[in-house]
Every structure is written in C-alpha cells, then in structure tokens.
UniProtKB/TrEMBL annotation:
<dbReference type="InterPro" id="IPR050166">
    <property type="entry name" value="ABC_transporter_ATP-bind"/>
</dbReference>
<protein>
    <recommendedName>
        <fullName>ABC transporter ATP-binding protein</fullName>
    </recommendedName>
</protein>
<dbReference type="InterPro" id="IPR027417">
    <property type="entry name" value="P-loop_NTPase"/>
</dbReference>
<keyword id="KW-0813">Transport</keyword>
Amino acid sequence: MTTQDNETYSHPAQTAETGADELANAIARALIVSPKILLMDEPFGALDAQTRNDMQSFLLDLWQTMQSTVFFITHDVEEAILLADRVIVMSARPGRIAAEFPITLPRPRTWDHLVLSEEFLALKREVLGVLRPDLTHTVPTAHR
C-alpha cells in the first residue's frame, strides 16, 4: 500500500489471491466436510508450470495426511502418473476405457525426484503408447 496526500492506494497484486491460493482455499473448503471422495476435474490446468508443480506437491502432501480417495481428471500424462495409484486412459470418441495402468511407484512422491526415473519414463511410454501409438514408434532414443 502507498499513501499520497493522505489517500491510500492498494496495488492489485497486494490484495488479489493468486490462482494457486484460490485453488488451495477451494480444496480446503471441500475437505472441511471430510469427504470420502474428492473429485478434481483439471484443477491445475490454468496454472503456469512452476505453480502447477507446487500444487501437485501440495496435493501429494495433503493426500498423505488425509488418505481419502481423489478422483483426478487430467490430460497431462506426467501429472496422472505422479499423482495416481491407477491411471485410466479414455478413448477419444466414443469415450470408453482404452487402458488401465496400476501405478506402483513408491510414496511419498516428489516431482523432481520421480519424473526422470526409469520406472516413471517406462510408465509414460506405456500410457503414450495407448494415447498416441503413432508417436511412440517414431521417438528416437538418446545416445551418448
């Protein structure tokens, strides 16, 4: 806040909640009633990459505490593998279950320690193989 000639001005960034704050508050409000299932439909889709990673970490930590079922809808394969115990891939049209992948990666999970692991990358290739079989056969492997 700044003052000029005895008038007070507020900068919008000082008073407005960030998207992440609003989302965290919405999650907190949903959890007040101790639901058995929490439905989250693309909750991090509008966030920038860093904030998205922060919110994924927040959700992972929260889940460790509450241990409720979270039904999480996302179009992000890495996000699905990071957060889930089971990934269900839907077909385009008609929308049907195309594949199901159990995710047995150890918990607690952290994005920075997991996404480049061989197990994570193998799961990602499997899921992408269902979603985009044309891409998984043409991706060159890196050689050193």
